[in-house]
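Narrative progress, year one. The postdoctoral researcher (J.K.) led the effort to move from monomer predictions toward full complexes, under supervision of the PI. The following entry was the first complex the group processed end to end, covering 540 residues in total.
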Amino acid sequence: MQLALFLIFGILCVAGALNLLFQRHPINSALSLVVVMMSLAVIYWTLGAEFLAAAQVIVYSGAIMVLFTFVIMLLNAGEEVRTRGSKAAYFAGIPGVLGVFTLLTYIFLREKSALGYANLGGGLNNGVSNIAEISRVLFTDLLLPFEVTSVLILVAILGAVVLARKEN
Amino acid sequence: MHLSDTQIFFLLTILKIVVVLVITLTSVAYTVLLERKLIGLMQNRWGPSRTGPFGLLQPLADGIKLFLKEDLMPLAVERPLFVLAPMIALACALVSIAVVPFGSLTVYHGVDLFEISDVNIGLLVILGITSIGVYGIALSGWASNNKYSLLGSLRASAQIVSYELALGLSLVGVVLRAQSLRLRDIVNSQAAHGALSWNILGGPAREHTAHGTVWVIAGGFQLLGFFIYLMAAYAETNRAPFDLPEAESELVAGYHTEYSSMKFAMFFMAEYANMITVACVATLMFFGGASSPFGHLFPYVGGHTAQIIEMALLPIFWFVLKIFAFIFLYIWVRSTLPRFRYDQLMSFGWKFLLPMAMLNILITSLVLAFHG
C-alpha cells in the first residue's frame, strides 16, 4: 500500500517535473510545478511529516503558485520559442548535475545511521500528531534562526515596496 | 458470509463516500432552490412555484435542462485547460467534505461511521483544498480567451489569496484552545457544557469534580474570530457582498462567461458546495459541531435500542440544523447587502480583517498563557 502510494506519486512528481521543462507555454509549466508540489506533499505525508505536507500545499501550491499564474495571466505571456540551448549547459551543466546527484546519494547512503531516517508509510498508521513537537522545537531550540528568517522576509518585502513605489 | 476487517473497512468507506456525495449533491441542488425561494420571499414575490408541489421539483428540472443543453465550446479557447478548470473547481469543493465529522464518534468494526476520513490535520486539509480550488476559477478565465472572463478570474485570484490569510488566522484562536488540528478534537473541546462551551460563546457553567460542584468559565470567547472567519469565508466563496468576480453589471458573468451546459453547472455546483463546506467549518470550529446546544441537560428517552439510535442520530440533526442556519444567513446577506467596490474589498481585507485577526490571536494566546 505504502509502496504503491510512493510509486504513484513519485512517478507523477518526476513526470510533472519533466513536463515543466518540456512545455512551451509558461502557464502549462506553472501547472506542472503545482503537480510536482502536490505529489511531494503526499510523499511527505507518507513519511509522517503531515504538517510539512499541509504547509507545502497551502503555502506553495495554494499561494505562491497562484501568484505565479496570476502574473503569467496578467502579463499575457505567450508561447516561447524553443532554442538549441547553450553549450555551457551541455558541457558543464549536465555532468555537474550528475556529479552532485551521485555525491548526495553516496553521502546519504553512507551516513544513513547518523542522519536518521523514516520508514516509508510509517506516519500513516499512527494517529499521533507531531505539530506540538515541531512548535516546541521552533520556538525554543531554533528560535534565533526562525526570527532571523522572518527579518529576512521583512527586508525582502520592504525591498519590493521600494521598487514598486511610484516616483513623485 | 464472513468478512475480514480490511474488507469491512473498504466496503464501509466506499458506502460512506457514496452516501455523503449523494447527500451533498442533493443539498447543493436544494440550496439553489432555497436561495431562489427565500430571495423571492424577501423581495415580495413567490420564487419558483410551478414545478411540483411548492416548486420542489425545480432542481430536477434545472438539472435536466443543464444536462441536455448543447455543450458549446468557442473556437479560440485553450481546450485542455478550458475542460479541466470546472473539474478542478468541483472536485476541490467536494473533496473537503471528506474530513468533516458530521455526527458523534460511532465506531463499527474499527470504522468511524460519521466521518469519511479522520485526519490528524483535518483543518489544514480543508484549508489546503480550498486554496487549490482557486485554480479552477483562475484557469477558466484565462483559458476562455475572453476579456470579461480574464478580468473576473484575476479579481477572484487576488481576492481569494488576500482573504485566505485572514481566514486562516481567524481560526488560530480555536486551534489554540483545542491544542489540536484534528476536527474531532476541536469539536470535543466544546462539548462539555452545551452551548456555553462553544467557541463563539463563553460563560459560567457548573462542573462536577471530586471536590463537589464548582463554577468554571467555559467557552472560547471567539466572537471576533467568528466574524472575521465569516466575512473572509464569504469573500473566499465569491458570494455577495464580495461577488466581484462575477459582477454581472460590469463583467457579463465573470469567469464563467464562455461556459455552457454541464461545464457551467459544475461551476455552479462548486459554488454551492463551497458554501456548504464553509458552513460545516464554521459549525465545527465555533458552534460545537454535532454537539447539542443543551449539553447533557436532557437525558435520552426510551429503551436501550432507542437510546443507541438517539445517540447516533440526534447529533446529525443538530449538525444539519446548524448548517441550514448558516446557509440561510448566506442567502439573507445576499439579498440584503450591496456589492463592495474593488478597492474597498482590498483595503477591508488587508487593513481591517488581517489586523483584527492578529489581535484576536494575541488576546487569545495571552489569556490562555495566564489562565489556561
